[in-house]
Structure to design on (347 residues):
């Protein structure tokens, strides 16, 4: 099997990039969503999409505008912003589907369901939604197994609310294991089966992000630089890989989020660390860091526990990384182009 040579990376560009020590006020000042294509052999990086959400689906003051987690399905790229779920057709990145609902707040992931609907991790309201492509809500799973509307008001447009943090659950990545639908829960540091809540994968460590099924195992990232590998049948973590132990002792890896697994190696996304308003989210940083590394994708050989290569994406305007996705074979040879979208995508 040949190794993947081209990757799509989703994320965002900050208004003012700041280091960890320069104040929490700059933590979420993103003004543009980006999708870049990375040539992992030559190291070239090209922008494919630049996107700004329309004002009517954003908070009035300091809205966070960026692409979060996405999913590739054939020639379709499913991707979310803070308040939108979108589907682009490839390779031309034509916007084919657009949904933005008043209940959307801090949306972290969108992917197709087995029935061709949209599955949306709506982190701000601690829920996962199943929607039609026209935006009709078919089902809501509360990720705390509570009444979905006990804490929230159906009449409020939560897209206009800057932040609902601290979240009690913060679901952030939806995936399938067989016919079961799962979601990672940031605050519980686990993965929960939505279709059978008696099933749960306890990951522990730090807060959990991605969940990817590969060859019978589920690969999770934790924000402090661990990969947790769970058996998809037993639902138990069988291996923990500490990437900090592989890194130089004076380096701070960054916020670890975004993962692509292939042939015994992984590509991981590291976003340069900045303070959050919820300080405990970066409490693990205090253990004596020295060197703040840029936002980048990095490859590790898992079998040999070695660092292989990295590509700096901060130099190309990407300050936060959310998803790393393989460019499908038929699309790799297509002529590249840049799509810029800043108008209302529904028009």
């Amino acid at each position: 099997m040949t190794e993947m040579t081209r990757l799509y990376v989703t994320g965002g560009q900050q208004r003012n990039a700041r280091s960890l020590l320069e104040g929490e006020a700059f933590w979420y000042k993103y003004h543009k969503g980006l999708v870049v294509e990375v040539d992992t052999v030559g190291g070239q990086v090209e922008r494919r999409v630049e996107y700004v959400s329309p004002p009517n689906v954003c908070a009035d003051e300091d809205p966070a505008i960026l692409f979060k987690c996405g999913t590739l399905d054939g020639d379709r790229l499913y991707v979310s912003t803070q308040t939108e779920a979108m589907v682009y057709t490839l390779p031309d990145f034509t916007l084919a589907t657009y949904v933005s609902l008043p209940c959307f707040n801090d949306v972290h992931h969108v992917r197709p369901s087995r029935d061709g609907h949209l599955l949306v991790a709506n982190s701000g309201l601690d829920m996962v939604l199943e929607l039609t492509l026209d935006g009709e809500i078919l089902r809501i799973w509360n990720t705390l197994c509570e009444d979905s509307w006990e804490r929230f008001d159906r009449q409020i447009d939560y897209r206009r609310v800057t932040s609902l943090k601290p979240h009690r659950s913060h679901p952030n990545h939806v995936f399938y294991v067989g016919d079961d639908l799962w979601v990672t829960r940031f605050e519980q540091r686990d993965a929960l089966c939505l279709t059978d809540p008696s099933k749960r994968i306890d990951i522990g460590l730090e807060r959990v992000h991605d969940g990817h099924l590969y060859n019978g195992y589920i690969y999770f990232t934790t924000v402090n630089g661990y990969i947790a590998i769970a058996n998809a049948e037993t639902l138990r973590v069988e291996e923990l890989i500490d990437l900090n132990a592989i890194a130089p002792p004076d380096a701070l890896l960054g916020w670890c989020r975004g993962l692509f697994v292939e042939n015994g190696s992984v590509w991981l996304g590291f976003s340069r660390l900045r303070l959050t308003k919820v300080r405990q989210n970066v409490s693990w940083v205090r253990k004596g860091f020295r060197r703040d590394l840029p936002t980048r994708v990095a490859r590790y050989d898992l079998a040999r526990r070695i660092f292989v290569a990295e590509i700096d994406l901060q130099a190309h305007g990407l300050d936060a990384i959310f998803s790393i996705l393989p460019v499908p074979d038929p699309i790799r040879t297509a002529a590249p182009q840049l799509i810029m979208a800043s108008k209302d995508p529904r028009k």
